[in-house]
Amino acid sequence: MASDIRNIIDYTRYPISESESPILQEVINRARSELKDNGITLLRGFMLPSAIRQSILDTEEALPIAFRGTVDHSVYLEEGKENSVLEKDHARNILCRSSKCCVAHDQIKTNSPLNQLYMSPEMTEFVRILLHRDVLYRTADPLGALNVHVYRENDQLDWHFDRGKFAVTLLLQAPAGGGCFQYIPSTRSDGSESHDLVREVLLATKAGQDLTALGVKDADLQPGTLVIFCGQNSMHRVSPVEGKKFRILAVLSYEQKADVHLNEYTRMKFYGRLK
Ligand SMILES: O=C(O)CCC(=O)C(=O)O
Ligand SMILES: [Fe+2]
């Protein structure tokens, strides 16, 4: 039985099914203008506290069977060996390390508020409108459509540029320290890869130096914040988690084509299994 979206999101602030609502119109206008100017928009207090609590419980229940992955990668998400044609400290050759647990879509209960939200046509329509797209579909993959990433102490998602044009995430639990989502807006553009800036950020991070002077911004995410981020040209990371409280974040995947499934390589890499 489909649950009412009003029990899951703060419908007073985000009346996502009321296309005529001036409140919704304002939400849409603000999000679109922030995405245009900064490549990121935060919808604070999107999920209700009761739905957050239940989604965390559902995640914790699935955690023992979730896949834990550790990957060495470049900021461009290439894995493995250095490119010997380039200098040793070229941005491409500075290795980053990421580790986290990933709860796959088929491990999230159908009646979990998070899953109910993701599966609701109203939510897909809302995201489509925010992103100004003609069409938008949920990813059809049984593992990859909706994921929950769980970061334990010292886990991080190191610097990278996304392969996809946009990402939709929802923070469920913030850690006691660290675990910050950090990014440099428009680090690179179609005309310039900004290799020097990228290298500086990577080296300063490894040296534990202050990153604000390099243009690194911190997104202030609270539990319940829905984030839309365009990360193809803005390098970003989740800094190492400090303390025993996990960082728990849902990734809601959408595509501009129907019936998109992940390939076998991606399934093995992110879920450790093919089905
Ligand atoms: O966990 C986050 O806040 C960001 C995740 C991210 O950048 C990614 O999955 O590519
Ligand atoms: Fe990313």
From TrEMBL:
Q: Which positions fall inside the Fe2OG dioxygenase domain?
A: 141-256
Q: Which Pfam families match?
A: HalD
Species assigned in the record: Pocillopora damicornis
By sequence similarity, the record places it as follows: Belongs to the iron/ascorbate-dependent oxidoreductase family.
Q: Which InterPro entries match?
A: BesD/HalB-like, Oxoglu/Fe-dep_dioxygenase_dom
Output this protein's name. Fe2OG dioxygenase domain-containing protein
Q: Which GO molecular function, any one, fits this protein according to its record? A: oxidoreductase activity
Keyword hit for Metal-binding: yes
Record's keyword terms, sorted: Iron, Metal-binding, Oxidoreductase
